[in-house]
Each structure stands twice: as C-alpha cells, then as structure tokens.
C-alpha cells in the first residue's frame, strides 16, 4: 500500500484529493492547521468522508512547526495543497499570511524533502494567477509570468523556490497551475460559491466590475484526477496548466445558475477589484500530452453539483436571512 501525504487536507482541493486517494487504495496522512480564513465547521465537513476511513490519519498542526523527516520516511507521494488563497484579501498587512503560508512553508517542505530517500514525487499546487493579465491562451513555457496581485506574487515565488531546489538537488517536483476551481466544497470566499449561496437565499448578487470578465473554470473532479495522475510525470520541475477548457463570463455563470435555481437575482455592481484579471484561459495541450488530461465536466453540470451540495448542507453556509 502506497502512502500519500496531503497538506491542506481540510481545504477544498486537499480534502477532495485525499478522498480520491483513499478510494484508490492509498494510505493518506492529512495535514491541516485549520487556518481561520473560513469556517472550521466547513473544513470539518470537508474531512467527513476521510475521517471514516481506517487508512486516514490527520495531523492538525501548522506545517512550519512539523518535523517532516520521520514523516517523509513513510511517504511515497507528497501533495502540497496548503496555502493562503484569495486574491482580493492579499493586500496590506494580510500579506504576512501569504508570505508564511505560501512561500516560507513551501521552502520548509522542500528543505526537508531534499534529504528524503523515499519520496517518489512531490506535487505542488500553483495558480493561474502567476500569469496576470494576458491576451489569449496562457502557456506554461511561452507566456511570461507577470502576476498582478500579492497572492499571485507569492505563488510565483513558491514556483521559483521549487525551481531552485530542482536545479540543485534534482527534487522530483511537479507544479500544477490550477485555473479557477469550483464544485462541491468550494471555498465560501469564491465567486461561484457566493452566487450559489445568494441564489438559495434568494438575495441580490454582487458583481465586481461589469461581469464581462471571463474565467477558465475547472471542475474539482477534473483537478483531482489531473493532480493524482501527475505522479507519473517523470521530468523534475515540470509546470503544467490544469484548466477546464471553457472560458466563460461571470454574467454567463449567473445566467446558468438562474436556470438551475429558477431564481433571477437582483445584481449589485461594485468597482472592479485590485488584483483581479479580466480573463484567464489555459493552454492545456501539455496536460493532455503528459497526463492524458481531458476535462470531463461542463460548467452547467458542475454548477448543478455545487448547487445541490449547498442545498444539502445549508446549515454550514449560514443560510439565514442575515447573510
Ligand atoms: N481554489 C482555486 O480555485 C485555486 C486556484 C488556483 C490555485 N489554487 C491553489 O490550490 C491550493 C488549495 O486551495 P483551496 O482552494 O483548496 O484552499 P483552502 O483554503 O480551501 O485549503 C487550504 C488549506 O490549507 C490549510 N493551511 C494553510 N496554511 C497552512 C499551514 N501553514 N499549515 C497547515 N495548514 C495550512 C488551511 O487551513 C486550508 O484548510 C492552494 O495552494 C491554492 O493556492 C486554488
């Protein structure tokens, strides 16, 4: 039985990866400090499936306080999903959290991984936000990275750290640049989750900007499958985009949701947020070539699944009139 260590295991993506690894017959050690970025109750619910499985164990601690040397001895694969996410919240004094949880923590892991003899692969979550504002498809090797938010800068810094460790110690690391991930368990600060909650509450929806900004939305199951299959990529330091293949405007998302919820919300417009980009579009030809990646879930189907998830777990999202 292979052992996988998943950091950020109580988060949206980490818990989904841990769940699939358990279903695939891995032993999983989850690590999460339950940061207060969003409700602990939501994170506990994210782990509900994993906690029932005898092959799952959880270390509830900050990564920077953990001695990984003994842990890595029994680990085959490391999936590093822990981070401080969120573009809009990355300005000002908050940047300290981004520096620690996205840059320092990555360095601590790499430093201890470099002396491990048992780690076969390390998969690290990066983000489309490293590209900033670009026209056309974003390509891992041809498109210049120019992040426009402190969050994007912190993710790019982590990528550069990885490159330095790969160059010097030949660490077997793969970096995945995820494009706007959505689906059941999505973080409550993300636009789609906010829209879903407001639709169920029958409340107005707030849009930052005019709603024509577009995103390459990627369904969580497609992210999970791509992430797990990346353990078979052989070249250390490879960077791979993972995108859903549909570039859709925020207004269009709301109109699909109107159809699902049978509710037409009032739209409130607020100024475009600093750090947000106008559009993202992943070139996924490398993911196709190296991972056999083909996104399977359409935005309509994925939105429906997220809507259903929130309906089933209303209590978690404070679905009261006060929200
Ligand atoms: N969700 C997206 O659309 C998206 C897009 C691109 C990249 N990413 C990246 O994917 C990864 C997962 O994102 P997510 O949306 O699941 O976020 P999330 O906030 O739901 O999960 C991250 C988890 O990491 C934990 N964590 C943070 N710092 C920690 C520390 N120092 N020690 C231990 N645990 C810590 C948090 O408690 C949280 O549960 C992140 O690296 C993020 O930057 C996400």
| Major sheet summary line | 7 strands, parallel
Helix content: 25-40%
Distance between the termini: 46 Å
CATH class of one domain: Alpha Beta
The fraction of residues in strands falls at 15-25%
Identify the bound ligands: nicotinamide-adenine-dinucleotide
CATH topology of one domain: Rossmann fold
Beta strand count: 13
Number of helices: 11
Shape designation = globular
Do you know the CATH architecture of one domain? 3-Layer(aba) Sandwich
State the secondary-structure class: alpha/beta
Q: What's the mean pLDDT score?
A: 96
Question: Secondary-structure element sequence?
Answer: EHEHHEHEHEHEEHEEEHEEHEHH
Give the CATH superfamily of one domain. NAD(P)-binding Rossmann-like Domain
Write the layout of secondary structure elements.
Elements: E1 3-7, H1 12-23, E2 27-31, H2 40-46, H3 48-51, E3 56-59, H4 68-73, E4 77-80, H5 95-113, E5 121-127, H6 150-169, E6 173-178, E7 181-182, H7 191-201, E8 205-208, E9 214-216, E10 218-219, H8 220-229, E11 238-242, E12 247-249, H9 250-261, E13 267-270, H10 285-291, H11 299-312
Parallel strand pairs: 1-2, 1-4, 2-3, 4-5, 5-6, 6-11, 7-10, 8-13
Antiparallel strand pairs: 9-12
Helix pairs in contact: 1-8, 5-6, 7-9, 7-11, 9-11
The structure holds nicotinamide-adenine-dinucleotide.
């Amino acid at each position: 039985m292979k052992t996988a260590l998943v950091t950020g295991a109580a988060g949206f993506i980490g818990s989904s990866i841990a769940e699939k690894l358990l279903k695939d017959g891995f032993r999983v050690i989850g690590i999460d400090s339950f940061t207060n970025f969003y409700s602990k109750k939501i994170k506990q619910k994210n782990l509900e499936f994993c906690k029932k499985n005898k092959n799952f164990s959880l270390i509830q601690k900050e990564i920077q306080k953990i001695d990984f040397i003994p842990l890595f001895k029994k680990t085959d694969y490391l999936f590093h999903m822990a981070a401080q996410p969120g573009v809009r919240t990355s300005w000002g004094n908050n940047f300290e959290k981004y520096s620690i949880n996205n840059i320092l923590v990555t360095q601590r892991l790499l430093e201890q991984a470099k002396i491990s003899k048992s780690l076969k692969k390390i998969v690290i979550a990066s983000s489309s936000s490293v590209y900033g504002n670009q026209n056309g498809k974003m390509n891992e090797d041809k498109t210049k990275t120019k992040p426009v938010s402190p969050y994007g800068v912190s993710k790019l810094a982590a990528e550069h750290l990885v490159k330095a460790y790969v160059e010097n110690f030949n660490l077997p690391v793969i970096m995945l640049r995820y494009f706007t991930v959505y689906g059941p368990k999505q973080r409550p600060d993300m636009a789609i989750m906010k829209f879903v909650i407001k639709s169920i509450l029958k409340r107005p929806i707030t849009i930052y900007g005019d709603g024509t900004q577009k995103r390459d939305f990627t369904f969580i199951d497609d992210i999970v499958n791509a992430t797990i299959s990346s353990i078979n990529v052989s070249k250390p330091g490879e960077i791979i985009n993972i995108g859903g293949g549909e570039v859709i405007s925020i207004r269009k998302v709301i109109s699909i949701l109107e159809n699902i919820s049978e509710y037409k919300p009032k739209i409130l417009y607020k100024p475009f947020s600093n750090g947000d980009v106008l559009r993202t579009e992943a070139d996924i030809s490398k993911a196709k070539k190296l991972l056999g990646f083909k996104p399977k879930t359409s935005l309509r189907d994925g939105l429906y699944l997220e809507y259903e998830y929130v309906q089933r777990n209303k209590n978690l999202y404070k679905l009261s009139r006060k929200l």
